[in-house]
UniProtKB/TrEMBL annotation, chain A:
GO cellular component, one term: plasma membrane
Bias type Polar residues, positions: 1-16
Transmembrane segments: 55-77, 89-107, 169-190, 202-225, 245-261, 273-292, 304-322
Annotated membrane topology: Multi-pass membrane protein
Location within or outside the cell: Cell membrane
Region of interest (Disordered), residue spans: 1-37
Family statement drawn from the similarity comment of this UniProt entry: Belongs to the NrfD family.
Annotated Pfam families: NrfD
Biased composition (Basic and acidic residues): 22-37
Listed name of the protein: Formate dehydrogenase O putative subunit
UniProt-listed InterPro entries: Electron_transfer_protein, NrfD-like
Amino acid sequence: MSDTTRQDLTQGNGHVTNGRPETSHHPETDPKREDKHYYGIPPIKHAHWTWQIPVYFWIGGIGAGTHLFSTVAQLLGHDDPALKRASRYTVLVTMILSPIMLIWDLGRPERFYNMMRILKLRSPMSTQSWSLLIFGNLGGLLAARQAAEDGLMGRNALSGLLIRLIPERLLSLLALPFGLFVGFNTGNLISATSVPIWARNWALMAPTFLASGLSTALSWLSLVLHLTRSGEPKTLRALHRAERATIVIEAGLIAASLVRMSRWGKPLFSKSVAPLFVGGALLSGIAAPAALLFSGKQTRGKSILSSLLVLAGGLAFRFALIKAGRISADDPEAYFTFASDRSAPQPEDKV
Amino acid sequence: MATGFLTDTTVCIGCKACEVACKQWNQLPADGYEFTGDSYDNTKQLSGTTWRHVAFIENPKKKRLTGDIDLVALAEDVTEPLPNGAELDALGRWAFMSDVCKHCVAAPCQQACPTGSIIRNEFDNVYIQPDICNGCGYCVPACPYGVITQAPHDGRAFKCTLCYDRQVDGLEPACAKACPTNSIQFGDVEDLKVMAEERVQELHDKGYTQAYVWGTPEVGGTGGIDGNHSKFILMDEPETYNLPKHPYLPQEKVKGGVVAGAIAAGVLGAVVALAFRD
């Protein structure tokens, strides 16, 4: 410090650039630094995750929710070929894209197969890899049978063989728990970390991800059926009712999560995340489609619009959570307050 | 036998010989020349390419340095009034702490690792097998101390190995070997625990009642981590050294999260089923 004295700075008379005194982050010289930490250097490291991970959370949720809806329909004896076709191919595409996103994100993508080296129940990343593998393969078999039924493989002996050999009902039922696991375990994946905003919400993260995944999946199915003008009226009615219920559940879970996150949820309302979270996830992803779904008579246009809004909102929600996690991890104050008393999850806490 | 470190910050002189020895022995790349402007410590933090980091905690006294200054008195921290109304800023307190991987008893990074790359080796140290790590990076946000980090341009995660290769040959880790004041001590964790308690008692007897051991199941190794094999003798609150007071094991709640998810799956399944009722 040349001409500026420390008193000047504490009184705010120092060189002021951009409204902040030009000082080091010294605990003594910087009037903004009264709390305890090491020059504001983050005490934990944030996850490196870039866009592939939130996109995976989104498409994985769509795949899981789609399979839930079509399997429940099948179990209830409601056989709608258009719904079945749409959901089988959706699961196939999402389960092809998901591993691509995840492998892309690896530091050493060529070693992705090491994920299959062990099964570790304590590691959500490990259980997620295995459930994706199982759900993806079962979904692939179901899609293969669907393709054979649709004549995409030609009318030959192979198609006949596929249709005869792949037990549809059994496989969709078998795939259901793994699909649901893919849908909710993404929540556990982020909450089993040291990042305050995620870890604080450990009990509600998985339900929130599954509810949000289901609502995007229902919107996706409704969008596809409306755009192709297919699907039986009963399917569309059920979709509409399920969409209404799920969006209410999702809104409730997000609200409860915010209460649970309390002060550590602040990053969701920070300058860089608020447009995504408040504007994207809450307003355009929940409030606007809810208004459309609960108002007056259902029209095709309204359904398509609300579906698009829900899908975009779901993607924004996942980006917002990942970005907020980065801010939370980079904030020494957040981590130290979280890890200074019993705010952090304790071994004796129960669901 | 479990081996570990005891880092006594009260005798650390901030020479950074441990940082250099670690970089040399483990052939870690340089991190570039960056000046933080915060303190004389420009390493800032532990990373995939820095496995020992000496933190400089610089706490100057409040009084400004004015008038005719007696540098000898300044260095000796003389407090009586000086001639010509000179005031002493003195050196204040300049504390050092050589940070390292905590080698947790229940290690969050090891539990997070989906490939089984992170193991406990025969010395009960947390060790990353570099030939297996595929750089998923999930151990990074799991670590409650911000130790394990992916190395840029490599993709894999790295951290202190507690000089596994040296231990195999019966040598102590490079940092402990290089430490000129024996601030870093290496040995059996049970022995280190006794040494730490004795040293803290000694400090208390001398009047430094603020000294304590960090890395025990009570402080710094809490919340299911069950203590650390790298212990530290600290003189201030853990946060001053960028360490948490009550960290927790993130995987403690995985089972609870799965139960909550399964309940949600059941409820949402029922909601979908009800939606089909006309």
